[in-house]
Amino acid sequence: MMVDVSIMVAQFSIVMAYYVFIGQQIDQVICESSEHKVCGNNRIYIFVGLILSMLGSMERDFGFVSYFSMFASVLILVALIIVMGFAVNSYKWHPELHNNLRQLDIGQLPFFFGIAMFNYGINPSVNNQEAVMKNP
């Protein structure tokens, strides 16, 4: 019983950090693309994500998720290459911009776990959940 409660608390905390991270990232992208006209709607994006997740969790067969997992893994790899290329070019042309980089900000630590769960934690866990289901 105590193990189940501990697992549930851990999963809920990870999911909450994940949704806050995704909501803030979507808000940041929309805010920048709208030239700061549409900003501060991260709670709406979190709510929409929760609704979509609840609808997806009602599915009995998670086989369709593997296609999204594969697509997400490819997108993560492409994004990593783009970010690294941008960082190299930025440093080459503007090295003075990199003088005051923050190495560790404790206030941003929950978002690091959100990124880690988004990139590495969520996709493999779906396959494990499907494997342990008695009647999928």
SSE arrangement:
Elements lengths: L1 H32 L8 H16 L7 H29 L15 H24 L4
Q: What fraction, in percent, of the residue positions are helical?
A: over 70%
How many individual β-strands?
A: 0
Helix and strand sequence: HHHH
Mean of residue pLDDT values: 77
Count of helical regions:
4
The secondary structure category is mainly alpha
For the termini, the CA-CA separation is 24 Å
Shape: globular
Uncertain ranges: none
Strand content: under 5%
Radius of gyration: 18 Å
Largest sheet, strands/sense/barrel: none
Folded structure, characterized:
The model has no long low-confidence stretch (mean pLDDT 77). The chain has 4 helices and no strands. The protein starts with a helix and ends with a helix. The protein is an all-alpha fold. The radius of gyration is 18 Å and the shape is globular.
Main features:
74% helix; 136 residues; globular; mainly alpha; single chain
The gist of it:
This protein is mostly helical and 136 residues long. The protein is 74% helix and 0% strand.
